[in-house]
Design a protein that fits this description.
With 300 residues, the protein is of the alpha/beta class. It folds into two domains: 74 residues, Helicase, Ruva Protein, domain 3 (Orthogonal Bundle); 213 residues, Rossmann fold. The chain has 13 helices and eleven strands.
Length: 300
């Protein structure tokens, strides 16, 4: 895909996509055609849909140069979301960078469970006012913002130990017009969060990767996303156990702690929940592959 090649042959949009899809396939991408389309659309400053009506067009030299650099970096392992600066989640666009995890489709199951749980609390007359919700380890703010967008009466506290991540989350909240309903707090779990008002829901996609498992992760995750947001400790359950412990006194009766986790530690996390008498009901929500992905605990 050099300029010399381009001068000898017509590098149309379609041909660029075909060549790049093959290149990404050889480099182990799970979604080579999608990666190629997202990056070419970014280089041309257009939508992916517009590419389909431009297959015979030839990008100009500046667009080809920008695309070539994106392809090079993607081939070295940089995630597409970091290259273009955003990721779609729950039909919303979120800015991401090296300080935040990249939102993943599996996490949408957590948001769905949270929205369903609020409806159940409202139906049971368990709420005295607007729902108060905490998102622990908010990162880019994807969970907190998606919930706030779809529950316009909620007040959300978005918590993260990383101030650079919170800066991204604030920006995303402003873009989606929910900044006034979200409080951002720098804290390690609930350590620096005032405890005067209990929450209706506590949501979290916490670190749940074990130290040994981290070494086996795909390089696009291991080398480019923040390790502190991925690794919990030797077993992967350490942060989840702390969160279960701290959440006991911070939930209203009937409120729920909803946690994303790895299917590999689902059984261990269920056993951890049994240690705490405050939780009288637990259920797992499975992802589209049928794996236990979200644990929902109800406070007695």
């Amino acid at each position: 895909m050099s300029d010399q090649q381009a001068s000898a042959e017509k590098w149309t949009v379609l041909r660029l996509l075909q060549w790049t899809t093959d290149f990404f396939t050889k480099h182990g991408s799970d979604s080579p055609r999608l990666d190629a389309e997202v990056l070419l659309a970014h280089a041309r400053q257009c939508s992916r849909i517009e590419l389909y009506t431009a297959f015979e067009q030839e990008p100009d030299a500046e667009q080809r140069a920008a695309f070539r650099e994106l392809v090079r970096r993607r081939g070295e392992g940089t995630p597409v979301a970091q290259l273009v600066g955003y990721k779609e989640f729950y039909s919303l666009r979120f800015r991401v960078n090296e300080h935040t995890l990249i939102p993943r489709p599996e996490t949408e199951h957590l948001v769905i469970e949270a929205l369903d749980s609020i409806k159940q609390l409202e139906a049971a007359n368990k709420l005295d006012g607007p729902p108060l919700v905490a998102d622990v380890g908010t990162g880019s703010g994807a969970i907190a913002i998606a919930f706030a967008v779809h529950c316009n009466s909620a007040r959300v506290t978005a918590i993260d130990i990383s101030e650079p991540a919170l800066e991204i989350a604030r920006w995303n909240a402003e873009q989606h017009d929910v900044l006034e309903r979200i409080d951002f707090v720098t804290s390690d779990l609930f350590d620096a969060v005032q405890s005067d008002t209990p929450f209706s829901l506590i949501l979290s996609n916490p670190p749940y990767v074990s130290e040994a498992e981290f070494e086996q992760l795909d390089r696009t995750v291991r080398d480019f996303e923040p390790k502190s947001a991925l690794v919990s400790g030797p077993t992967g359950t350490e942060t989840i156990e702390r969160l279960m412990d701290q959440s006991r006194s911070r939930l209203i009766p009937g409120g729920r702690l909803i946690i994303e986790l790895s299917p590999m530690i689902a059984g261990d996390c269920a056993k951890l929940a049994e240690k705490f008498d405050e939780y009288d009901e637990s259920r797992f929500i499975k992802d589209l592959a049928g794996h236990r992905r979200v644990l929902s605990l109800k406070r007695a």
